[in-house]
Structure prediction request, 201 residues.
Amino acid sequence: MNRLVTSVSEFWQRIPKAVLFAAAVLLQCVLLVLMVADRMQILREGTEVTLQTQPVDPRDLLRGDYVVLRYDISQLPAGALAGKTADARNPVVFVKLAPNADGVYAAVSVHAESVPVTAPEVLIRGRVSHSCGSNVRTFCDRLTIKYGLESYFVPEGEGGKLEQARNQQKLRIVAAVLPSGRAAIKRLLLDGEPVYEEPLY
Prediction:
């Protein structure tokens, strides 16, 4: 075993530092490209759903150049999951959504696992921000769920207008949702009109 460690150590020492540096830079570039490609896939292939934003506590102010977002689907009754054991402190859940008469998607049910849906229903993946009890992993009667859609970067100085619209419930977002449930914000709607469109790259 010691001989193996020694030979590996000697092998690494023989590699020029410039090659190691170039390999590290290349790896970071590949990871960055994969992240961009993943987001492009969601935005290009995901089913579009419109979500209504909710007012945010005024103490939770604009942070930098992004707007804090919360939705009608951010807090939901647990339904059949209430009181059941969760597999983690912040378990993943799947929320079945369906459009209402206004075309805004609302929650139908919450599930611990992916379930089949039929169009125009969509299944969105989220994570419960906390479970009941300090030591026991159980689902509360009401769940606070985060979907990775809780902030949106805006041009400097534009956040105040959007926060005001959000608190007046005039702001909606259109999210792209993949069949796996992963979602990303595609555009912002102010009084039903697009104001910001997320580029594919």
